[in-house]
C-alpha cells in the first residue's frame, strides 16, 4: 500500500501560476508522497505528448509512482452523436493513460453539475443501459494495455454505494472497478463509513478526502449547489452543507474508515485529495502526515 497525492490537491497553486504539474510531482516526493495521481486540471495532456513524457520522467527522477489518471466525462448525453463523441473522447484518453504508464484510469460517467432534479432513481434506471454500454466499450479498449478503468462515487448522480455497485455488476468486466472516495458519499447524504464498508471489496483505487458537515437547519451560511473547492460550502443532494477539510481534521471518522480499509486487506494506492480553505500546500502536507499517522496507529 502506498500513500500519495492527487495533483488536484494543488490545483490552486497550478492555477495561480505558482507551480507547474512537474513542480507538484517534485513537491509530493519532498513531502513524503509515494505516488502521484494525475488529474489534468490547470494543464492539458490531450495532444501534448511532450508534457506526458516530462511527467513520466519527473516521477522517475524523484522516485515515485504515477498511480492513476483521472478525467471528467459525461456518458449519459441524450443526443446520440454527442454520446458517441464523448465515448470516443474517453477512449482517446485511455491512450494517454497508457503513455503515462499507469494501470488505473478513472473516468466519470455523468457530469458533476447535472441538475439535481434529474438525479433521481428513475433517471438512473433509464440511463443505466447507456452507462453500461459506454463503460464496457472503454474498459474493453483499456484491456489491451492491462489498464483497469474505474467509476468513482463522484458528484450527485452516479454516487452512493448501491448505484455504483449496480453499474459495476452490469458492466461485468474484470478490469472495471471502483475508485472509492471516502468523502464523496456525503454528497448524496450517505454515511461515509457505511459507503466504504459496502464498497471496499470493489476498490481498485482509494481517494482520501475529508469534509466539515453541517445540517442545513443548523447552519445559516451560504451554500452553492456545485462549487466544492477552495473551502466553499456546498449543498448535498438534500440541502445539507459540506466544506472541504484537511484529511484527519474534518467531521469524517477517518480513524475508523482507515481501519476498515486496512482490515479489508486493500494493498493498492491511497491518494489524498484536498479542497479546503487553507493554503493548498499546507492543507495537503498536513493531511498526508495525518493519514500516515492514523494508518500507523490503527
What are the main properties of this structure?
TIM Barrel, eight-stranded parallel barrel, globular, three-stranded antiparallel beta sheet, 298 residues, alpha/beta
Please provide a written account of the structure.
The chain has helices spanning 11-15, 21-30, 49-62, 80-100, 121-143, 161-171, 192-199, 254-263, 280-297, and strands at 2-6, 35-38, 65-71, 104-107, 148-152, 176-181, 203-208, 210-214, 234-235, 241-245, 269-272. The protein is an alpha/beta fold and 298 residues long. The protein has one domain: Alpha-Beta Barrel (TIM Barrel), CATH 3.20.20.150. The strands form two sheets. The protein has an eight-stranded parallel beta barrel with strand order 1-2-3-4-5-6-7-11, surrounded by six helices. A three-stranded antiparallel sheet has the order 8-10-9, with no helix packed on it. Strand 4, helix 5 (121-143) and strand 5 form a beta-alpha-beta unit. The chain starts with a strand and ends with a helix.
Amino acid at each position: 500500500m502506498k500513500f500519495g497525492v492527487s495533483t488536484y490537491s494543488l490545483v490552486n497553486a497550478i492555477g495561480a501560476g505558482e507551480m507547474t504539474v512537474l513542480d507538484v510531482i517534485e513537491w509530493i516526493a519532498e513531502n513524503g508522497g509515494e505516488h502521484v495521481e494525475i488529474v489534468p486540471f490547470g494543464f492539458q495532456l490531450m495532444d501534448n505528448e511532450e508534457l506526458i513524457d516530462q511527467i513520466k520522467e519527473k516521477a522517475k527522477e524523484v522516485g515515485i509512482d504515477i498511480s492513476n489518471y483521472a478525467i471528467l466525462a459525461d456518458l449519459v448525453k441524450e443526443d446520440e452523436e454527442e454520446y458517441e463523441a464523448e465515448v470516443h473522447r474517453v477512449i482517446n484518453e485511455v491512450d494517454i493513460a497508457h503513455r503515462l504508464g499507469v494501470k488505473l484510469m478513472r473516468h466519470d460517467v455523468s457530469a458533476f453539475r447535472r441538475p439535481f432534479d434529474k438525479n433521481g432513481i428513475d433517471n438512473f434506471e433509464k440511463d443505466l443501459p447507456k452507462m453500461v454500454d459506454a463503460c464496457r466499450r472503454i474498459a474493453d479498449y483499456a484491456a489491451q494495455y492491462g489498464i483497469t478503468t474505474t467509476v468513482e462515487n463522484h458528484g450527485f448522480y452516479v454516487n452512493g454505494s448501491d448505484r455504483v455497485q449496480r453499474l459495476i455488476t452490469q458492466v461485468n468486466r474484470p478490469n472495471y472497478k471502483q475508485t472509492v472516495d471516502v468523502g464523496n458519499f456525503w454528497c448524496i447524504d450517505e454515511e461515509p463509513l457505511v459507503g466504504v464498508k459496502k464498497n471496499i471489496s470493489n476498490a481498485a483505487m482509494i481517494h482520501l478526502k475529508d469534509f466539515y458537515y453541517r445540517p442545513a437547519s443548523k447552519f445559516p451560511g451560504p451554500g452553492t449547489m456545485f462549487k466544492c473547492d477552495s473551502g466553499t460550502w456546498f449543498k448535498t443532494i438534500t440541502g445539507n452543507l459540506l466544506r472541504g477539510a484537511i484529511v484527519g481534521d474534518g467531521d469524517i471518522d477517518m480513524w475508523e474508515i482507515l481501519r476498515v480499509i486496512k482490515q479489508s486487506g486493500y494493498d493498492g494506492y491511497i491518494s489524498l485529495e484536498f479542497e479546503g480553505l487553507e493554503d493548498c500546500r499546507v492543507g495537503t502536507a498536513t493531511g498526508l502526515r495525518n493519514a500516515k499517522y492514523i494508518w500507523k496507529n490503527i
